[in-house]
């Protein structure tokens, strides 16, 4: 006999698989939605919704709308994160999925500037805000669910697997746009760009079906049994875990800045500044996402073996070292070289952080406030680095006509992350090796080794 608090090994295995599948599906939908908006901002929205601007400035205006969505992600992280700690992870993740998916689908029926004037970008902005609020707890919530279901000794590997949804979502989004590239340009600009947004309604149904079959995590259920649910999770995070919250936020800078700049600015840089066919960047992102399906679990497994903090710092160092060579390769204007550059930065250099982020952040907070602490810190970091980054990079390029200021900005984000993880809780280096302690917050500095 067993129950939800004392499951059999077979039940545990089933619950872990369901949590992972639900995390992958939800993350796929989230990043499908976001890659659509980011790609459309770089390639479509600058013309259809901001036609009065110079091409580079029009792209900056469209990417600003993308950034505004990122600025509302922290609101979703705080609100839905607190609800997740109060009423449960499962129900909150179902709600965020619907909010995010419907907002994306409605973008597909928006009028353009030529049809509605100033109301077109205003309506797009409102939907982008709702999309950002919903997404603010989606990936963080998936990381919490899997980390709380996972075996501590395999936490790095298992929490890396929902990241495969990020790769799948990007592959779906870029594949859709690559197929639409075969359409005549006038038809694509008239209605073709809308089709990927409308298709997101399919993902809502699939995602909800899977989400409702997931069991609440044993750690959360243990909190409810002992009546330890916090009355104000946000207040408790900053009252007793403020240091770890800031470590978590800064630890996200390099990963967020790099992934978002590659998905948006690099595409715009290649297509608008270097005048390469837009399919080059999209194909590079597709191949990089395909490779990421293998590098996510690889780096998660390495985190269990070598220590989460070590792999995380190593990945941030790799990003800083490769940024300038990446621009050198892209500036060759050779399609194969550009694709290789995108693969190396997106599927290899940054992926060590993406794969180990769930385990690292989850272990900075106790279960009673984990959803709030993880989702809010991650999304504030995302807004500051990932939201501002593409807009700032585009404006720097427009002002200087050089990639150097952009490269230095990206390197600075990596340096901030390295410093944050270096001074963070030392036991994060031993997740997997010191499994009994990983769920307790720590304040000891990370010692050099």
Could you describe the 3D structure shown?
This protein has 449 residues and is mainly alpha-helical. The chain has one domain: MFS general substrate transporter like domains (Growth Hormone, Chain: A, Up-down Bundle). The protein is built from 21 helices and no strands. The protein has helices spanning 9-48, 55-87, 89-107, 113-116, 119-135, 138-149, 155-160, 163-180, 185-190, 195-198, 200-211, 218-225, 233-240, 242-251, 253-273, 278-306, 308-330, 335-349, 351-362, 370-400, 404-423. The longest helix has 40 residues, at 9-48. It is globular and about 60 Å long. The chain starts with 8 loop residues before the first helix and ends in a 26-residue tail after the last helix.
Q: Separation of termini?
A: 47 Å
Mean pLDDT: 84
Helix and strand element order: HHHHHHHHHHHHHHHHHHHHH
Uncertain runs? 427-449
Strand composition percent? under 5%
**Extended strand count:** 0
Q: Helix fraction? A: over 70%
Shape call? globular
Radius of gyration: 21 Å
SS field, number of helical segments: 21
Number of domains: 1
CATH homologous superfamily grouping: MFS general substrate transporter like domains
User: According to CATH, what is the class?
Assistant: Mainly Alpha
The CATH architecture classification is Up-down Bundle
Class by helix and strand content? mainly alpha
Q: What does the largest sheet look like?
A: none
* CATH topology (level 3) name: Growth Hormone, Chain: A
Main location: membrane
Pfam family, one: MFS_1
Keywords: Cell membrane, Membrane, Transmembrane, Transmembrane helix, Transport
Domain Major facilitator superfamily (MFS) profile: 19-429
């Amino acid at each position: 006999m067993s129950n939800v608090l004392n499951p059999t090994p077979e039940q545990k295995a089933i619950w872990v698989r369901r949590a992972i599948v639900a995390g992958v599906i939800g993350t796929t939908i989230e990043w499908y939605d976001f890659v659509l908006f980011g790609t459309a901002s770089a390639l479509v929205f600058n013309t259809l919704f901001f036609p009065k601007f110079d091409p580079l400035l029009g792209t900056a205006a469209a990417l600003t709308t993308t950034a505004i969505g990122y600025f509302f992600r922290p609101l979703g992280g705080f609100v839905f994160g607190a609800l997740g700690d109060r009423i449960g992870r499962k129900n909150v993740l179902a709600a965020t999925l619907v909010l995010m998916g419907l907002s994306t689908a409605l973008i597909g029926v928006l009028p353009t500037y030529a049809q509605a004037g100033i109301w077109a970008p205003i309506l797009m902005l409102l939907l982008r805000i709702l999309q950002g609020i919903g997404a603010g707890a989606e990936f963080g919530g998936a990381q919490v669910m899997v980390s709380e279901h996972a075996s501590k000794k395999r936490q790095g590997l298992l929490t890396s697997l929902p990241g495969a949804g990020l790769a799948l979502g990007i592959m779906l989004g870029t594949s859709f746009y690559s197929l639409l590239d075969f359409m005549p340009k006038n038809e694509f600009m008239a209605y073709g760009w809308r089709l990927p947004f409308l298709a997101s309604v399919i993902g809502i149904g699939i995602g909800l079906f899977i989400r409702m079959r997931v069991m609440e995590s044993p750690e959360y259920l243990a909190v409810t049994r002992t009546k330890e649910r916090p009355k104000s999770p946000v207040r408790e995070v900053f009252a007793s875990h403020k240091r770890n919250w800031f470590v978590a936020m800064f630890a996200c800078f390099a990963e967020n800045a790099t992934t978002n700049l590659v998905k948006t600015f690099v595409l715009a840089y290649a297509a608008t500044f270097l005048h390469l066919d837009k399919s080059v960047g999209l194909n590079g992102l597709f191949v990089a996402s395909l490779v990421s399906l293998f590098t996510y679990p690889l780096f998660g497994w390495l985190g269990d073996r070598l220590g989460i903090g070590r792999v995380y710092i190593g990945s941030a160092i790799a990003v800083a070292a490769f940024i300038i060579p990446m621009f050198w390769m892209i500036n060759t204007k050779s399609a194969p070289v550009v694709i290789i550059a995108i693969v190396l930065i997106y599927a290899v250099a940054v992926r060590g952080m993406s794969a180990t982020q769930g385990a690292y952040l989850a272990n900075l907070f106790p279960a009673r406030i984990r959803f709030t602490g993880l989702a809010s810190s991650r999304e504030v970091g995302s807004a500051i680095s990932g939201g501002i980054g593409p807009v700032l990079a585009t404006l720097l390029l427009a002002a200087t006509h050089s990639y150097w200021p952009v490269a230095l900005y990206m390197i600075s984000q990596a340096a901030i992350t390295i410093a944050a993880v270096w001074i963070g809780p030392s036991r994060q280096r031993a997740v997997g090796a010191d499994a009994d302690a990983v769920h307790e917050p720590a304040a000891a500095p990370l010692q050099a080794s």
